[in-house]
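Progress against Task 2.4 (sequence-to-structure conversion) is shown through the following example record, which the project officer requested during the mid-term review.
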Amino acid sequence: MNKSPCPRINFDFAGRFLPPVYIIVFMVGLVANGWGLKSLLQKWKKLGNINVFVLNLGLADILYLLTLPFLVVYHFMKSKWIFGDTFCKITRFCFNLNLYGSIGFLTCISVYRYLAVVHPMRVMGRITVTHSVIISVMVWLLVSVQSLPDMFYIKRYSKPYGNNTEKCFDTTDNIYVESYLKYTLGWTFTGFCIPFLITLGCYGHVIVVLCRTNTTDKVLKQRCLKLLCILILLFSVCYIPYHVLKNLNLWSRILSNQKICHKWSNGVYIAHQISRSLVCLNSALNPLVYLHGNENILASTRQLLQQARHTFSRLFFSNSGSVPVPQTADEA
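Structure tokens generated for the chain above:
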């Protein structure tokens, strides 16, 4: 640690690394979520309690995915935001709605699974679709209230910044970074840590119950274990690294403002950008919840894969009888 001017942070890394990730997530996430939502809406009258949360999970993903093309343009233009201050804030707001909405609805799914396994007789017939809809509205309201203060921080820098670009900050400008760190620490605790502990407690108890009893339906056991694996994947890959590195990067920026330098500052920034790419993957991974919980979608997936394999086999065998063409040097 020293008081000399801090070394340059490699801000160009985000512009090179994030756009390909955004493009892949946009294409995969839009197809997967669109397909999953279509399958759920086709069975609207038979929509179960948990599927209400799954439906909202998909809507949160679609909302965020529609903002990714604008972020791709932003990075391709070397971090120059051309869509105005209001839309910059809306874009970041949609990201937060997706992130914390996803965590909230996954927590609701975990609680419902817990009640179905641990207290099946107590909740049988007492929890209806109406309850799930009301809880979903409460989740949206809570996430919106938590995300709203973020909208009042400066998101766009209209004057020359760095290499004469107009930024659209995912956090805020360095002038307000100390205040923003205090806000985001509280946000992390209420929006991530508490739901994570609830989810962990629910599935910890579920695993204990499943291991102790042999009377639980085997299909229900398999679904619970699959969902547990999906949640472990989402939290360990998408959510935990992002929240740790986001707050660490904000702290590093505060130290930099105070001319207190660390050699790891650039490494923390790069790791944070990687965690941003990982957290946006949740929009492509959330459809796994559809696949594990909806037998109709699973059946449609198997049928589609079988059709694709059958079509590929016919094309392969029809072309196998043709005379092979010698490969030129350019084709090798």
